[in-house]
């Protein structure tokens, strides 16, 4: 692995650590490497979006930022904000020799302008290193920037034969501990987690993060319901209400079948996580109801398989919605 790839991988890891915490801003990672090849500054977007990753890394680096190489996962912002200075201006003042950027910022207030300002200051700028990895890490914010809503991830725990519960409704536990730990990691990377009122009444779920060291990263909780408000929960009365979640980049939908079906029928699911256990339930509750398809041909080409791996005895399958553009 080249030095550039290695340091950008460090910046991407910092960006991923901020996913689920940085909204409404993007989760960005930044690493500053001095002339002797040592990391002198690290930063990731702080909780709530400020300070930005570059500002944190520059503060750590201090005067060592001069002549350095900066690795950042998204183009430094070029617009002024009441919440803080433009990162492109902070970098110009710090005078690094070179800046390596993974992804150009699609925000029209910055798009290309940050790079232009840095180059005008005599700083070498390289764009595109690990672009795809940065796009995956920033998928929630990019989705909200493009579609006006968070990226919606649907999580399902299924048997081999596609059941989510016994006829009685019993579903604890279809999957094993390794799969459940992975779900908690997904929760830690989400801004909000949602279930239907039926799941809330049946299971009284906590929907928190119970991984050592990550307990404070439990996301906001939401109910899809027309019923009364519940203390500590936000209410969505319709799946289309996701368009008013302007401070949520990543929304995790955990259940149950009616809620999953409602989001799929509205074509609001961008990613599906299927935790499949090696069990057969037989007669039981199916994962989905009618999602608006009347012909098998209409079902093809809508979903792309992107990843899978084993979690103990269980298997995780990841699918992404295929959308034009």
Automatic annotation (TrEMBL):
Pfam families associated with the record: dCMP_cyt_deam_1, RibD_C
Enzyme Commission code(s) on record: 3.5.4.26, 1.1.1.193
SUPFAM superfamilies membership: Cytidine deaminase-like, Dihydrofolate reductase-like
Associated pathway: Cofactor biosynthesis; riboflavin biosynthesis; 5-amino-6-(D-ribitylamino)uracil from GTP: step 3/4; Cofactor biosynthesis; riboflavin biosynthesis; 5-amino-6-(D-ribitylamino)uracil from GTP: step 2/4
Domain CMP/dCMP-type deaminase: residue ranges: 2-126
Matching InterPro entries: CMP_dCMP_dom (IPR002125), Cytidine_deaminase-like (IPR016193), DHFR-like_dom_sf (IPR024072), Eubact_RibD (IPR004794), RibDG_C (IPR002734), Riboflavin_Biosynth_HTPR (IPR050765)
Superkingdom, natural source: Bacteria
Reaction equation(s) it catalyzes: 5-amino-6-(5-phospho-D-ribitylamino)uracil + NADP(+) = 5-amino-6-(5-phospho-D-ribosylamino)uracil + NADPH + H(+); 2,5-diamino-6-hydroxy-4-(5-phosphoribosylamino)-pyrimidine + H2O + H(+) = 5-amino-6-(5-phospho-D-ribosylamino)uracil + NH4(+)
Needed cofactors: Zn(2+)
Keyword Metal-binding: yes
This protein's record includes keyword Oxidoreductase: yes
Keywords: Hydrolase, Metal-binding, Multifunctional enzyme, NADP, Oxidoreductase, Riboflavin biosynthesis, Zinc
Note on cofactor: Binds 1 zinc ion.
Chain's role: Converts 2,5-diamino-6-(ribosylamino)-4(3h)-pyrimidinone 5'-phosphate into 5-amino-6-(ribosylamino)-2,4(1h,3h)-pyrimidinedione 5'-phosphate.
PANTHER family, per database record: 2,5-DIAMINO-6-RIBOSYLAMINO-4(3H)-PYRIMIDINONE 5'-PHOSPHATE REDUCTASE, DIHYDROFOLATE REDUCTASE FAMILY PROTEIN (AFU_ORTHOLOGUE AFUA_8G06820)
Family named by the database record: In the N-terminal section; belongs to the cytidine and deoxycytidylate deaminase family. In the C-terminal section; belongs to the HTP reductase family.
Protein name: Riboflavin biosynthesis protein RibD
Organism: Sphingomonas limnosediminicola
């Amino acid at each position: 692995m080249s030095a550039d790839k290695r340091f950008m991988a460090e910046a991407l890891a910092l960006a991923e650590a901020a996913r689920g915490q940085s909204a409404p801003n993007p989760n960005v990672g930044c690493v500053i490497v001095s002339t002797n090849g040592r990391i002198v500054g690290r930063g990731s977007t702080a909780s709530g979006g400020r300070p930005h990753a570059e500002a944190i890394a520059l503060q750590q680096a201090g005067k060592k930022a001069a002549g350095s190489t900066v690795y950042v996962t998204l183009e430094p912002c070029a617009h002024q904000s009441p919440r803080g200075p433009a990162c492109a201006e902070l970098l110009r003042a710090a005078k690094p020799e070179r800046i390596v950027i993974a992804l150009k910022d699609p925000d029209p207030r910055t798009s290309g302008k940050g790079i232009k300002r840095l180059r005008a200051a005599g700083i070498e700028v390289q764009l595109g290193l690990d672009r795809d990895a940065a796009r995956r890490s920033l998928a929630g914010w990019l989705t909200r920037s493009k579609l006006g809503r968070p990226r919606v991830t649907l999580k399902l725990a299924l048997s081999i034969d596609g059941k989510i519960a016994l006829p009685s409704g019993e579903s604890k536990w279809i999957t094993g501990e390794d799969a459940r730990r992975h779900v908690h990691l997904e929760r830690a990377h989400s801004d909000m987690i949602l279930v239907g009122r039926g799941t809330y009444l049946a299971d009284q779920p906590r929907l928190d993060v119970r991984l050592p060291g990550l307990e404070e990263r439990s996301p906001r909780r939401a109910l899809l319901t027309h019923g009364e408000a519940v203390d500590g929960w936000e209410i969505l009365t319709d799946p289309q209400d996701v368009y008013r979640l302007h401070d949520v980049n990543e929304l995790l939908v955990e259940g149950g079948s009616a809620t999953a079906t409602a989001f799929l029928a509205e074509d609001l699911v961008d990613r599906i996580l299927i935790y499949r256990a090696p069990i057969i339930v037989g007669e039981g509750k199916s994962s989905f109801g009618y999602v608006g398809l009347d012909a098998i041909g209409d079902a093809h080409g809508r979903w792309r398989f992107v990843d899978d791996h084993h979690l103990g005895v269980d298997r995780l399958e990841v699918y992404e919605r295929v959308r034009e553009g």
